[in-house]
Structures are given as C-alpha cells and as structure tokens.
Amino acid sequence: MSIFRYGTLIDVYTLIKITDMKSIFYKASERGHAEHGGWLKSNFSFSFAEWNNPEKIHFGALRVLNDDSIAAGGGFGMHPHDNMEIVTIPTRGTVAHKDSTGTDGLIHTGDVQIMSAGTGIRHSEYNPSTTDALELFQIWVFPKLKNVKPRYEQKSFNSDGRINQWQVVVSPDASEDGVLINQDARFSLSQLDEGKSLSYKTKFKGSGIYLFVINGEVKVGDQVLQHRDALGISESDNIEITASENAQLLAIEVPMLS
C-alpha cells in the first residue's frame, strides 16, 4: 500500500444549485481507475495511490471512497495507517482481516467494519475464496481527535432494516447502534423502491451529505444519479430523494472542512 499525501483542502468542481442547497455532481465514469496484477480492480472517487486529481481530493472530512474488486486469493499484506477512520463495507463475498490490535477474523457481506487507526495500526485484508471475487467499499474519514488509541469494531446488519428508510451503520452516537466513529459523521444505507421518496436530515449542524448510488437510479431535485454516481451536498440540512427505479443508497454525513 502506498503512502498518500492529502494535498490541498480546496475542491474545484462545477457547482449545481438545487433549491437552496449547493451540490457537486460526481459522475461514476469520471472516477479514477487502477488494476494490479490481475487480482485487484479499483475505482477511486477521490485521489488515491497513483491516481492524483487535484480537483478530487476530498469532500469535507470524507477523504477516500474506493470501490474495489479483489480476485479469489488476492489481497493486501500487512501495511500501516494512522490518524484515519477506515470503514469497510463488503457488498459481495468475505474479507479475511488481521491487524495489530489482535483482531483476526472474517468480515462478511452484511457486516460493516471500522478501524480508528489513531497512533498507528497495521492490518492485512484478502479474499479467502478460491473461486469467487470479493467486492467492497473502503472509505476513509479524517478523525475528530488525533493520536487516539487504535480501535477495531464490526457489526452485522439485517438489510430488512433499510427498506424505504435509512439504516444507520456508522455513528459517533452509540444509541444509533452503528459502529462507532471518531468523528461527527454518520453512514446510512437504504434500499429505496421505485417511485418511493426518502428524505435525509443531517444530525450535525453545518455538515455535508455525500449521497452515493450503489445501484439503481434516483433524482435529487432535477439531478439524476445512476449506478455509482454521487452528489456532494452542503448548505442544506435536509434533502429529498426519489427513486426512478429500485435503488441502493449510501449517505455519508461529514463535517465540511474550512
């Protein structure tokens, strides 16, 4: 795994005005792409590894959203991280994970995992299947507090709890039952049926919403979002989403960096 520089904290995009909100459209086809040795295919929403786009560094405290496919038996050996909140969401298959906190186990589809890297953590992750590809999202968020003691957590979530509603899977608030994050940030998943509408209201004042379409098609105002498109929304505490067809959604609420 390479070492990455965060770069500038200024994102330069075409800004789209939808009612009173400010939004940035992130088209799926304009993501970065890399392939390694036939075992890894990655799409990068933000600058990562050898793909460096100065206009796509981060959205608020959201630094990385990688859409990875790992071939049977492939994976990353032990490598370090520090001062980053790292969330892994498998969407197909199982991740075999081992780290310097003593964790050694499997992360299945339906699970959400987080590492608060803090003062430093080393981990490995690979696809234990001998036949099937592993697909996952790995998402990095800048932490609220630096140099905390490294921490690991994972939980399983029943997808029935996200049908036409938000299911919180990452939160700093233990009462919301997501894995705990060292940041004023929340991750929520939804399976929205065709023709249904769903609003998202921010929990934290002044935060932004990064709406990522895992599958399907939705509209926010006049903006159409399809498979793997995203919309970064700020200066609004509430958005309305309507499904043009059955859709799977991920909403990431994060502080907006000044």
How would you describe what is shown here?
The protein has a single domain, classed as Sandwich (Jelly Rolls), CATH 2.60.120. Helices cover 0% and strands 53% of the residues. It contains no helices and 21 strands. The radius of gyration is 17 Å and the shape is globular. It starts with 14 loop residues before the first strand and ends with a strand. The N terminus is likely disordered.
Question: For the residues shown, what is the average pLDDT?
Answer: 92
CATH superfamily: Jelly Rolls
How much of the sequence lies in strands comes to: over 45%
- Broad shape: globular
Reading off the top of the CATH hierarchy, the class is best stated as: Mainly Beta
Number of helices: 0
Distance between the termini: 29 Å
Q: Which key phrases capture this entry?
A:
single chain; mainly beta; Jelly Rolls; ten-stranded mixed sheet; seven-stranded antiparallel sheet; 21 strands; 0% helix; globular
Summarize the structure.
The chain has about 260 residues and is mainly beta.
Helix and strand arrangement:
Layout: E1 15-18, E2 21-26, E3 32-36, E4 40-44, E5 62-70, E6 75-81, E7 85-92, E8 94-99, E9 104-108, E10 111-116, E11 121-126, E12 134-141, E13 151-156, E14 167-171, E15 179-180, E16 186-192, E17 197-201, E18 208-220, E19 223-225, E20 230-234, E21 238-254
Parallel strand pairs: 14-15
Antiparallel strand pairs: 1-2, 2-20, 3-4, 4-5, 5-12, 6-11, 7-10, 7-12, 8-9, 8-11, 10-13, 14-16, 16-21, 17-21, 18-19, 18-20, 18-21
